Amino acid sequence: MNVSELLRLLQAEHDETAARTDQLREPIEQFTTALAETEARLAELIATRKVIDSLAPPDHAPTVADPATATVYQRIVTAFNEHPGKVFRVRDLHEQLGLPTDKPSINVTRSRLGRLVRQGLLEQPGRGQYQKRM
């Protein structure tokens, strides 16, 4: 194989690789654009949520009459509203609400309680303890 043949093969491979690179760039650019648009929409939704939360009265948590049709969040908030001064541990809350006390269920509720703390409905007087914000 001579040098000119080697250069021709190298050029052919270069051309194929450049074409493949262009083919790959197009969907990447589309995904990048879609990601930027989706992230912008998410930022708008977060800002809207913050504005609505700031305008809502502090006692905007719904009261639930029928525990059979209530969501777990509603049942949790109702339990804290019924016992405003009581400090709950997650397991105690599960037992009171008749929820399963297995570790995965406890962890899901712990996450829910964390959200309620961040929303300002509950407070954490100690590690693993939750009570209604006064």
User: What is the number of independent domains?
Assistant: 2
Mean pLDDT: 85
Radius of gyration: 28 Å
Instruction: State the strand order across the main sheet.
Output: 1-3-2
CATH superfamily of the largest domain: Winged helix-like DNA-binding domain superfamily/Winged helix DNA-binding domain
CATH architecture of the largest domain: Orthogonal Bundle
Tally of extended strands? Answer: 3
Name the beta content range: 5-15%
CATH topology of the largest domain, which one? Answer: Arc Repressor Mutant, subunit A
Between the first and last Cα atoms, what is the distance in angstroms?
86 Å
Residue runs with pLDDT of under 50 for 5 or more positions? none
In DSSP terms (H or I, runs of 4 or more residues), the helix count works out at 4
Could you give a short account of the major beta sheet? 3 strands, antiparallel
Which oligomerization state do the chains in this entry correspond to?
A: single chain
- Element order, helices and strands? HHEHHEE
Helix content: 55-70%
Judged by helices, strands and strand pairing, the structural class is mainly alpha
- CATH class wording of the largest domain: Mainly Alpha
Apparent shape: elongated
Domain AbiEi antitoxin N-terminal: 86-131
Organism: Streptomyces alanosinicus
InterPro entries: AbiEi_N
Protein name: AbiEi antitoxin N-terminal domain-containing protein
